[in-house]
Amino acid sequence: MTSNPRFLALLAVLALAAAPASAQQAGGARATAAAAEPPFQAFSSTNVQLLQGYNFDDPLYYTDGRMTTVTLNHFSTWEYGDNFAFADFYAGHFRNGFSPSHEDAGEYKLYAEWHPRLFLNRVLGQKEPLFGFIKNWGLAGELNQSEGFGAYLAGVGFDLTLPGFAVAGLNLYYRYDSVLDSIDEGNQWQVSPFWTVPFSIGKVPFLFTGFVDVNGTHDFAADESFVEIWAQPQLLVDALAPFGGKPNRLWVGTEWFYHRHPVETASAPQIMVQWTVY
User: Fold this and answer.
1) Paired residues of 194 in beta bridges
2) How many angstroms separate the Cα of 227 from the Cα of each of 53, 142, 189, 263?
3) For burial by CB atoms within 10 Å, which of 91, 128, 159, 244 has the most?
């Protein structure tokens, strides 16, 4: 992992969790309600995913053909924020899209991200949603890392309360990319909505979940900026619950890998299996 002063500054900001402000007594009813409020319950979950696709035509990162992905996901909450992290292990045929010659980059690749957030509404002791639908708001960070590439992001994050959504959120970032430890892509921006929608058909549970990353980037060959889109929506079915098995343990379905870039657009549906470890 490369050392970067922007990343170190980001870690320092996100590590500061100020103590909540002292609550002001505003009447017996309010004090009684506060005393009766249940303590915070932390949540943690880890899953492993196996994906297989056959149409990865992306001139920046992949050659034509198949790709197998093993993903380790982890999400956890704490009193004043949350953390999300994942690592992707790829097997396929890769090229280095950041080099002028786009040389072969081998058959295996590792990519990882970490997304910490610090919710200022919790630090300040605010209980009611902002504007009636913003459940949490505060600082958001992101670190993306693979061989020869690093992205360092800092901004604000929101958790939203929307009808029908188990999870809905939006992160807005300032973004800095470093490529091959020598190419500075400069200051950019990124908008990242994410969601999870549970639903059922008869007695069969489904999940529609995923994210979209829309970011600015720079094409040095053409000396112009453009918009890049990454999206990975998933449609999954609970494979055990309809047969009396443990729910939310084994999910099967499909993921759509989508990468829009001025050079070309890659679109690859994948078969997917997800096992929830805990």
Assistant:
1) 169, 211
2) 25, 19, 10, 12
3) 159
Q: Please give the single-letter amino acid code of residue 268.
A: A
Residue ranges covered by each domain of the chain = 46-276
Q: How far apart are CA 214 and CA 235, in angstroms?
A: 21
* Contacts with 100 (C-beta within 8 Å, 6 or more apart), sequence order: none
Whole-model pTM: value is 0.82
Q: Which segments of the chain does DSSP mark as H helices, in order?
A: 5-15, 28-36, 120-123
Reported as a pLDDT band with limits 50, 70 and 90, residue 237 is: very high
Distance CA 238, CA 32 (A): 42
At a CB cut-off of 8 Å and minimum separation 6, what does 46 contact? 72, 73, 74, 75, 276, 277, 278
What the block records as the tokens of 8 is 């170190």
Tokens of 217: 């980037």
User: Whose CA is closest to 277, among 251, 245, 253?
Assistant: 251
Q: What are phi and psi of 273, to 5 degrees?
A: -130, 130
For tokens 């300040």, the residue is: 124
Ranges 101-115, 137-151, 231-245: which has the least confidence: 101-115
CATH architecture of the domain 46-276 equals Beta Barrel (2.40)
